What does this fold into?
Amino acid sequence: GENVEQHPSTLSVQEGDSAVIKCTYSDSASNYFPWYKQELGKRPQLIIDIRSNVGEKKDQRIAVTLNKTAKHFSLHITETQPEDSAVYFCAEYNYGQNFVFGPGTRLSVLP
Amino acid sequence: SAVISQKPSRDICQRGTSLTIQCQVDSQVTMMFWYRQQPGQSLTLIATANQGSEATYESGFVIDKFPISRPNLTFSTLTVSNMSPEDSSIYLCSGGLGEKLFFGSGTQLSVL
It folds into this structure.
C-alpha cells in the first residue's frame, strides 16, 4: 500500500536558523502534497500545499519543494521563531484515494 | 478554509460504555472523515463518512466497534462502542474542501 516516510523525526534549531523536513512517498500517481502543523493539544492545521505540476511554492517564511521523479518533497522554514515549534506532518493524496500521512517531525526552535 | 466543529472536546469514560462524538462542518465540505491519533503518533484513518449510506472503513476498523452516521452533508457522528483502555486516543473529524483537508478540534478520550 501507499507509504510516506518523513525525516527527521525530531529536529532542534536555534531561533533564526532554517529548518528542513523531507518526505518520500511511494504512490507515483499522487498529485497533491500538503503539510500540516500541529501544536500541542491543537488540531492539525494546513500550512502549505503543492500540486504535482508545480516544483516549488512559497508563502512568507515557509516553502515546499517537490521532486516527482525522485518522489520526495520537502518543507523549508526560514528565520525560525519559537512559535514554529510544533509537530509537522506531510501527506500525499491521489484523487479518489485517501490521504496518507507521514509519521511526523517534532520541531523545537530554541531561543 | 472550512469551519469544523467537534464535540465533546474531551471525556473520561468507563470500560464497556460507548461515547458518541459529533461533527458539524460548513456547507462547502464534500467529504467527511474520521481519524484517530494516538499520543505522539500520526493520523490514522478510521473511515470515510458517506452521506445516507454506510461508512467506508479502513483495515482494522469495523462498523460494530465504530458505527458512523452521516444523515446529511454537514453532520456526522462517530460512536466508540464497548470501550476498553486501548481506545484511549484523540479522535478527529475532518472535512474535504476540494483536495484540501481540514480538521476539527478533536476529542480526547480516556477510558478507565
Q: What stands out?
A: The radius of gyration of chain B is 13 Å.
